[in-house]
Amino acid sequence: MIAVLLTAAVLLGLPTLYFAVRSREFRKFLAGAFFVSAGVQFYLYLTHVSVPLAGTGLVVTPNVSAVRSAVHFVLFLVCLYFGFVRKPAPHR
To answer: Cα separation of 67 and 42, whole Å?
Structure first.
């Protein structure tokens, strides 16, 4: 199952990175998605909820949720800056 998850992450992650670099609107969407994800992960941490990972015997602990929340919040700030704050460079 881990191999399937890693393969899916690579196959879905590369097109996502491509569109994030090329499209300002996509970065705006990602900013919202990362903001919501950071909030949910932080809530799971605050309420001490462990979440089982579907299809495996692994459990995501509240401490892992806290780390994920911090990472997603940083990604939110990056996408917020490049999607909303920074003006796009003029095309040549």
So the answer is: 9
Placement of tokens 């881990």 in the chain: 2
pTM of the full structure:
0.79
Dist. CA 29–CA 78, nearest whole Å: 12
- Asked whether residue 2 carries a pLDDT value surpassing 80, the answer given is no
Question: How far is 75 from 54, CA to CA, in rounded Å?
Answer: 25
User: In whole angstroms, what separates CA 45 from the centre of its chain?
Assistant: 16
Backbone phi, then psi, for 56, in 5-degree steps?
Answer: -135, 175
From the list 26, 35, 44, the residue with the least C-alpha distance to 71 is: 35
